Amino acid sequence: MITKYEITKSLLFDGDEAEAVHKSFSLPAGSIKFNDFANNNFEDLRKVITTDDFETIVKTGGFNADFLNLYKGSERLRLYYTKKGNTIAVFAYGEFQPTRYKLYLEGIWEL
User: Measuring CA to CA, which residue among 68, 77, 78, 80 is closest to residue 44?
Assistant: First the structure.
């Protein structure tokens, strides 16, 4: 059950992907590296938490799924997540323009 959430929608990175993969980002949930979330597609979060918690995150985050059921966040970038203990951080990441990548922190939820 979600006990607390914070919707931050803040831009963490804007630049070349080669730079992003080596950076770490300081968040309220702790330090996060690119590899902490890059292999965790948001859709797979359904397998990690309850359906009710997943739906709460989708609703409170204002996320929408496209016709392929892939969820999108800020600037229609694909969503990813990381889970540390009882804290889930959701990110929007992807290529915004050719060779220009953006990373947004969409929000943090506590179970």
Answer: 80
Place of tokens 């204002």: 62
CB 65 within 8 A of CB 71: yes
d(CA 52, CA 110): 14
Side-chain-side CA neighbours of residue 4 (13 Å) = 4
Q: How far apart are CA 61 and CA 108, in angstroms?
A: 9
- Chain segment 18-58, per-residue pLDDT in tens: 898 888 988 877 889 999 999 999 999 999 999 999 999 99
- Write the CB contacts of 35 (distance below 8 Å, at least 6 apart in sequence): 21
